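INFO worker-7 received task bundle
INFO bundle size: 2
INFO processing item 0
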Amino acid sequence: MGAPRTGMSYLPDGALARMKNHFLVTLAALVFLPAGPAHAQQSSTDRADDSVIAATIKAGLLDNRNTSGTRINVDSYQGVVQLSGFARSEGEKTTATKVAESVTGVKQVVNSVVVAPATSMGTKLDDSLVTGKVKAALMDAADVKSLQINVETHDGVTQLAGFVASEAMKDKAGRITAGIDGVKRVDNVLVVRPR
């Protein structure tokens, strides 16, 4: 008798990788299931398609060694995909676009990712606090559907991304964000949904 098997060594070659990919796609699908207000103007079929597109891209970013699935956000509306957040290099930003473009159902990719260097832990904590304050202010605002808006802050620069119903909502979200203590600059890359 040989040594007892431990861990997942009993799986056939490639099975662990397939399980990992399946898990990542499932996890991403759960994270990106559309909230009601965020996709209120889409049919249930369109919402499902966009959820699958976003989840598949997110899983691809997580699985690609050259991209960060945690720093790059993915939104999809009628096959138009917006990538947002912060990347460490132009190469990461470019690779993220390629990952998104390779997904079935993607009609267009809007890459709003900003290239920014890593920051200290203290700055990351400050940025998290600023992001929380911005999200709270947007939730309290009338005529701003905050669930449609991704908010990320990096070294005091707060990015607003996602698909919103009108130019007025985009402008109002930007004005609210600019008034929050700790926001050095607003990068308002919100996309007004086509009608």
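INFO item 0 finished
INFO processing item 1
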Amino acid sequence: MRALGIEFASSQMTYVLVERATDGQLTAVGANRLSLGDTRSSEVLRAFQSAVQTLFNDMAPDLVAIKEKPEKGTMQAGAAALKMEGIVLANASCRVKFVSGARINKCDNAASSLNAYHQPAFKAAASALADE
């Protein structure tokens, strides 16, 4: 099974594709970032949507796991994060699961081959795969 873990931070979408082998071993298959430059430009939003569609087509995940961001409070998601999340939800061709930040912080899984900024997306995918 393949899960695409996603974290939104500012105007960046960090993602990691995690594959679970039959023995339960988790492997990071691919990782990168997408950026949303201008949240008020329809051309930029369409380009981001096209990049997300290409990502889903290339990665072919069975599940998308998104690190949950609060909509209210001091740690609330910004406009760019909410727009990116909406585009991901609208274009996902598989099931989407939200994973809380507390659950991600408790996750022991980590991929030493990934940068530190990829770890929350990896842990979102690992947490979602643990439920399957």
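INFO item 1 finished
INFO post-check item 1: Residues 2-131 form a domain with the Nucleotidyltransferase; domain 5 fold (CATH 3.30.420.10).
INFO post-check item 1: Residues 48 and 71 are 22 Å apart (CA to CA).
INFO worker-7 idle
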